[in-house]
Design a protein that fits this description.
By secondary structure, this protein is mainly alpha-helical. It is built from 14 helices and no strands. Helix content is 76%, strand content 0%.
Length: 461
Amino acid sequence: METGKQQPLLSGDTCQNNHTNLKQLPSAPARFRFHGDVQINGVGDFCREFYVEFKRLWYLAGPAIFTSLCQYTIGATTQLFAGQLGTIQLAAVSVENSIIAGFSYAILFGMGSALETLCGQAYGAGKIEMLGIYLQRSWIVLNTAAVILMFTFIFGVSVLSLLGQTTAIATAAGNFAVKMIPQLFAYATVIPITKFLQAQSSIMPMALIAFVAAISHVFLSWVMIMKLGWGLVGAAVVLDGSWWFITLGQVTYVLWGSCGLAWSGFTWKAFNNLKGFLHVSFTTAVMFCLETWYMLSLVLFAGYFENPETSVDALSVCLNILGWVCTVSLGLNVSVSVRVSNELGYGRPRTARLAVIVVVLSSLLIGLLFSTVLVVYKKQYPVYFTSSQEVIQLVEDLTLLLGVSTTVNSMQFALSGVAIGAGWQTTVAYMNIVSYFIVGIPLGLLLGFKFNMGVKVTPHL
C-alpha cells in the first residue's frame, strides 16, 4: 500500500482512476465521502480520522455481520437439531458439513472471493460496467467447479472411509452428503452475487433475505426433524431449501433490482479472458482453502483419537462456537476488503492503511469479548449443542483453549480481508502453507498422539 497507483486487474480489463465518476458511486452516505487521501499530522488528526474511518467501516460491517450471522444460523440450527437426535446423527452432520461440504465450499468461496479484489477496485476506479461482466465470469467458473466437486458428495462414503473415519460415521455422513448436492450449486451461484453486491456496499438487501431464511429455517427444521420425525432427511430438505431461497432472492434482486450500471444484462463478454479470470480465482481460492482445510483436518484427526464419536462431537461443538465468532470477523473481513479495494481504486493508499488499523483493533476487542464470555459460561453453553454428558464435559475442558483461538482467529480472519482487497493473495497463500501445513498440522499430530493430548490440542492450533 505504499503507492497510489492502481494495479492492473486483468489483461484487457484494467481500470484507470476516474474521479469524475465518484459522485455517481453510492458506496456510503455523503458524510462518509472525501476526495483527498487522509492526512495525519499528530494525535488529534489520528483520533479524528480514526473515528471517521471507524464509522465508515462499521457502516459496512454491521449489515455484513448480521447477514453472516443469519446464514451461519442456518447450518448451526441443523447441527443443533441433529445433536438432539443422537451422537451418530450429530457426527454425520458435523463431518459432512466440515469435510465434504466444507472442502467444496472452501474452493467455491475462495474462487468467488476474487470478485472482492476485481469488483472492489473496478468500482473504486469508476469502471462500474465491469462488475456485471466479472459476476457472469464467476458464475461460469464456479458452476463448472461445482460439477466436478459434486463427485465428492456422490462418493462421500468411500472418501470418508479412505480418510480413516469409522464405518458408522462415514456411512451416515456420506448418505447425508448425497442429499446436500443441491446446496453445492446454491453456493456456486450465490457466492459471486454476494461479492458483487458487497463491492458496491449494497448489503442491506442480502441482510433482509438472510433474516427471512434464518427465521423460516429454524421453524421448518423443528417441524421436519422433530415434529414429523423425518430425521436427517428432513434436515437435508430444509437446509437445501433455505440456501436456494437465499440464492433465488439475491438473483432476483440483481436481475430486477437497482444495481444500475453494475448490471446491464447477460453478455457474451463474460466468456472473454476466462483464462485470466480463472488464474485470479485460483490464486484467491488457494489462499482461502489453506485456511479452511486446516480446520477441516482437525475434525478428521479427531476421528482417529480414542472414542472417536465423542472427540468429533466435542470438536464440532468448539468449531461451531468458533464459527459464530467468525461470522462477526467475516463482517469485518468483508468491510475492510471493500474499504481497501475501493480506496486503492480511488488512489488513496493512506486511507486504506488507516482502515487496516481500525479493523485490527476492532477484531482484537471482539475476540477478547467472546473469549471472556466463553470462559465465564463454560458450564452452561455446551448443553445447547448436545445431550451427551461425556461430550459436554469434554467441551467444558476445551473452553480455555477455545477462548484463545477465538481471539487469534478473529484478528487473522479480518486481516484476510485486507489481503484480498489489496490483491496479496499469492503472498498470503505461501504464508499459510508454512503456518498451517509445515508447522500447525505436524505439531498437532505430535501433541495429539505422541503426548496423548488427544482432541485437547486441536482448538489451540
